[in-house]
């Protein structure tokens, strides 16, 4: 027991009060610093994501006798050149097609209402609807003119965007070029066993993030080209803008992205006629099935093997936490975490049960690598014995690790 002081208070009470005050103060200062540095932390997180995505290409060049700094600069410049080329060459075309679509929207709606009245014997008056669309178009033009007149605000926003872009590029360059040195510095303060686990996690993150970028880009290109061909065959206006919309949106919103992005082409096709809209809807549905069951499993087999529902939930969670950057980082972060945890989760052979038959027969067992199941011997002649729960147990210390070959024992 502690000895009370002259006032009858235990000796530990003043120390506890001081410790509580210091703890609250430290938490308050940490929270204030986090709020003040939130923008910088977001830029660092984006830089880390880009560094992980670029490192596979940098490592490939480095293995082919390129200096690491030169390889990083070449890959980073190639990525920046691709973005600038896309925005300069395709951005103006996309903007022009969208503005033309907005200008012609009242005429398209008038034609749709005329077809509806002729086909179904209705008597809808297009005056109010077309007037509302014209007012909306006028509001859009006024808003664009206001942005153009506010040169100071536009210039400030452009400078902030340029500064943030240069900051991300600088951090990305150093995190990629000095990646081995950075990891060596971190491992130097960790014990050997922890170093092994940290490097394993880092390797998984590089593989999953790089695979995410390359697989998404390839799937977006295939989707854009396929939908562009379908729009051309159906003679739907603005095929490139609509195909690019579907191709990009379908890859950043898993599973339902094609349907959400395909809503705009169906609406535009509906303004042309009901049959093009119906054929466009059928094509989008069939392509989504083809992508889910043929393209995506082959392209993302070793990069993002996540269930579609889990992927969609990860995107929603990332967007709720960090906004648009969180939605971008959710899939590679979730896939990396899933792959890292799968190394340490011990799995057992699943017991026979009727509830497992349908999934095993249709989809196989992805956790067990779709291995064929052994049939139990039937009857007394086969010498069947009831399972005792031990004969199917895994060997001590055994685990299924797809990356074990690269790390040894």
UniProtKB/TrEMBL annotation:
UniProt topology in membrane: Multi-pass membrane protein
Region named Disordered:
357-409
**Which organism is the protein's source?**
Lipingzhangella halophila
Q: What is the lineage of its organism?
A: Bacteria, Bacillati, Actinomycetota, Actinomycetes, Streptosporangiales
The superkingdom listed in its UniProt entry is Bacteria
Where is it chiefly localized? membrane
Q: Please give the GO cellular component terms listed in this UniProt entry.
A: plasma membrane
- Record InterPro entries: AI-2E-like
What protein name applies here? Putative PurR-regulated permease PerM
Q: Which UniProt keywords apply?
A: Cell membrane, Membrane, Transmembrane, Transmembrane helix, Transport
One matching Pfam family? AI-2E_transport
**Start-end of Basic and acidic residues biased regions:** 387-401
Q: Name one GO biological process term.
A: transmembrane transport
The compartments listed are: Cell membrane
Q: What family name appears in the similarity comment?
A: Belongs to the autoinducer-2 exporter (AI-2E) (TC 2.A.86) family.
User: Which segments cross the bilayer?
Assistant: 12-34, 40-61, 73-95, 151-175, 267-290, 310-331
């Amino acid at each position: 027991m502690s000895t009370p002081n002259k006032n009858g208070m235990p000796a530990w009470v003043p120390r506890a009060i001081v410790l509580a005050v210091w703890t609250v103060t430290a938490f308050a200062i940490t929270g204030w610093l986090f709020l003040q540095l939130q923008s910088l932390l977001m830029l660092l997180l984006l830089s880390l994501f880009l560094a992980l995505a670029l490192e596979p290409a940098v490592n490939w060049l480095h293995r082919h006798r390129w200096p690491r700094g030169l390889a990083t600069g070449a890959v980073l410049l190639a990525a920046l050149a691709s973005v600038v080329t896309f925005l300069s060459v395709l951005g103006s075309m996309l903007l022009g097609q969208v503005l033309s679509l907005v200008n012609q929207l009242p005429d398209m709606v008038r034609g749709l209402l005329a077809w509806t009245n002729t086909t179904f014997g209705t008597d809808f008056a297009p005056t109010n609807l077309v007037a509302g669309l014209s007012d909306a178009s006028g509001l859009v033009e006024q808003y664009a003119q206001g942005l153009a007149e506010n040169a100071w605000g536009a210039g400030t926003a452009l400078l902030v965007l340029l500064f943030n872009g240069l900051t991300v590029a600088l951090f990305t360059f150093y995190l990629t070029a000095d990646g081995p040195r950075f990891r060596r510095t971190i491992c130097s303060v960790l014990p050997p066993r922890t170093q092994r686990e940290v490097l394993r996690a880092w390797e998984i993150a590089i593989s999953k993030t790089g695979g995410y970028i390359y697989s998404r880009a390839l799937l977006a290109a295939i989707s854009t080209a396929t939908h562009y061909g379908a729009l051309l065959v159906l003679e739907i206006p603005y095929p490139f803008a609509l195909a690019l919309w579907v191709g990009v949106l379908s890859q950043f919103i898993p599973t339902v992205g094609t349907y959400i992005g395909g809503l705009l082409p169906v609406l535009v096709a509906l303004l042309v006629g009901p049959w093009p809209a119906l054929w466009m809807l059928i094509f989008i549905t069939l392509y989504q099935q083809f992508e889910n069951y043929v393209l995506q499993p082959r392209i993302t087999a070793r990069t993002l093997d996540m269930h579609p529902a889990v992927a969609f939930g990860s995107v929603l969670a990332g967007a709720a936490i960090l906004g648009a950057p969180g939605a971008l980082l959710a899939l590679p972060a979730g896939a990396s975490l899933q792959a890292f945890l799968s190394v340490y989760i011990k799995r057992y052979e699943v017991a026979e049960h009727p509830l497992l038959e349908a999934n095993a027969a249709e989809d196989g067992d992805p956790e067990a690598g779709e291995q064929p199941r052994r049939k139990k011997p039937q009857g007394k002649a086969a010498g069947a014995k009831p399972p005792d729960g031990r004969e199917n147990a895994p060997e001590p210390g055994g685990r299924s690790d797809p990356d074990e070959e690269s790390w040894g024992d």
